[in-house]
Design goal:
Distance between the termini: 45 Å
Bound molecules: 3-hydroxybutanoyl-coenzyme A
Radius of gyration: 22 Å
Shape: globular
Helix content: 55-70%
Number of helices: 13
Largest sheet: 2 strands, antiparallel
Number of strands: 2
Amino acid sequence: MQVINKDDQAAMAQELAKFEQKIADEQKIEPGDWMPEAYRKNVIRQMSQHAHSEIIGMQPEGNWITRAPSLRRKAILLSKVQDEAGHGLYLYSSTETLGISRSQMIEALQSGEAKYAQIFNYPTLTWADVGAIGWLVDGAAIVNQISLQRTSYGPYARAMVRICKEESFHQRQGYEAMYALAHGTPVQKQMAQDALDRVWWPSLMMFGPHDSESAHSSQSMAWKIKRVSNDDLRQKFIDQTVPQIEVLGLEMPDPEIKWNEERGHYDSGEINWQEFKEVINGSGPCNFQRIKHHKAAHQEGEWVREAVRAYKQKQIEKQNETAA
Ligand code: 3HC
């Protein structure tokens, strides 16, 4: 066991007090700042899982790029999927400032050690699913990410500002696609309804378990990594989405949705938490397929990484030659 001497203990206590004061004063924690090891690990966990969600999230939508119903829809979808790749890259880069490499994060994803949003383990069966993902999945993501613009880790908060702007466009294009279907032929309207019914519940699960079951919430809230609780964010999403369903003229996906005058919120039915657990633990309909595809794509990209390493090596050699 490592023995810490009294001077080191005092210095550490001082650093901890400084760190806690910064958090209390709403100052950001920056990469070079001292931080408790548990804070660093927790931010890496959340940020890397967030990055993985952006990257794996490209798959269900990418599935429809070649089959989008018009050139306009195809161009929109293509740029949306590219945006998600960009979000993944900002987040991997920001996470690297905490002392973990991107290849370590990828390894954790591929081995199943790191999670990613469960929603992406469901298939996209029809074109309406693409609309429903933009509207509901990106919609749920924004509700959470707006609060994360105030997260205590500086690089994460700053990445969220840009990501939120793009997610907002994603949400609107999804809603517009759903609106076109909901006001189209009876078959198109049915397709929109079916997508809403299937995507609704997994979208609610995106906010994570109930607060009482959330392993990380109390520490993450105390350190201001998370600013709003899982249940409060979920309620906010329900409250803002129900009127949108009404505008679409679709049936509610949950018969228990009802305005509660006393609470000033919509009541809704209970989520199937058993399904949530199964999906986050690897047994969702597409978990195997998503990781298999990620591994294959990563393998195919090896030549790019090899070229980057060779270029870097050449630069070092050149610098050494000039210095000699
Ligand atoms: N999917 C998969 N796993 C989930 C989950 C979900 N929807 N919700 C919770 N979990 C996992 C947690 O990661 C944790 O597992 P771990 O200990 O192995 O990491 C466990 O369930 C317990 O949950 P907690 O409530 O204790 O976890 P958190 O405090 O981390 O809260 C969270 C969960 C609200 C998702 C939080 O991590 C968070 O805000 N993350 C950042 C936002 C994010 O990841 N968004 C991804 C959305 S998708 C996206 O942005 C792509 C875009 O294209 C739409």
